[in-house]
Amino acid sequence: MSVAAIVAAVVGLNVENILTAAALAFAAVVIHNAVGLGSGYGVGRLTTMSEDRARACAVEVGLQNSGLAVALATAFFTPEAALFSVWHNVSGPALAGYFAANPPADADAPTADPTTAD
Can you say whether residue 116 is alpha, beta or left, with left for phi > 0 and alpha for psi between -120 and 50 degrees? Predict the structure, then answer.
């Protein structure tokens, strides 16, 4: 709920600027976020993380410090800079929703208890 409130506040305060933001800037934001989400997931899988942990890593890397970023962007840069955080707060929950609707194939498989030794 707090993420939605942050996004709503930023968009509400900067709606004119967001609507007039250059397509190139928006494309850069989307590509940057996609690289973060994809690399979080990809590195997780390459390092043999389980599917659920790789998914968590993707969301963490893709959304890292987004709330702080919007506050700093609004305070120290132009309001257009807040677009970066707004997009993160849209794409991250969308990906999390997709992950929730499509559980990993190994979700029901028993996992090893890390507190016990082999």
Answer: beta
Q: Does 46 fall in a domain?
A: yes
Residue at 23 is within a domain:
yes
Number of structural domains, the chain? Answer: 1
Residue-wise pLDDT for 31-64, tens only, equals 878 888 999 999 999 999 999 999 999 988 887 7
CB 52 within 8 Å of CB 104: yes
Residue 34: give the domain boundaries: 2-101
Q: Is the dihedral of CA 39, 45, 46, 49 positive or negative?
A: positive
Q: Other CB atoms closer than 10 Å to residue 56's CB: what's the count?
A: 17
- Please state whether the predicted TM-score (pTM) of the whole model is above 0.70: no
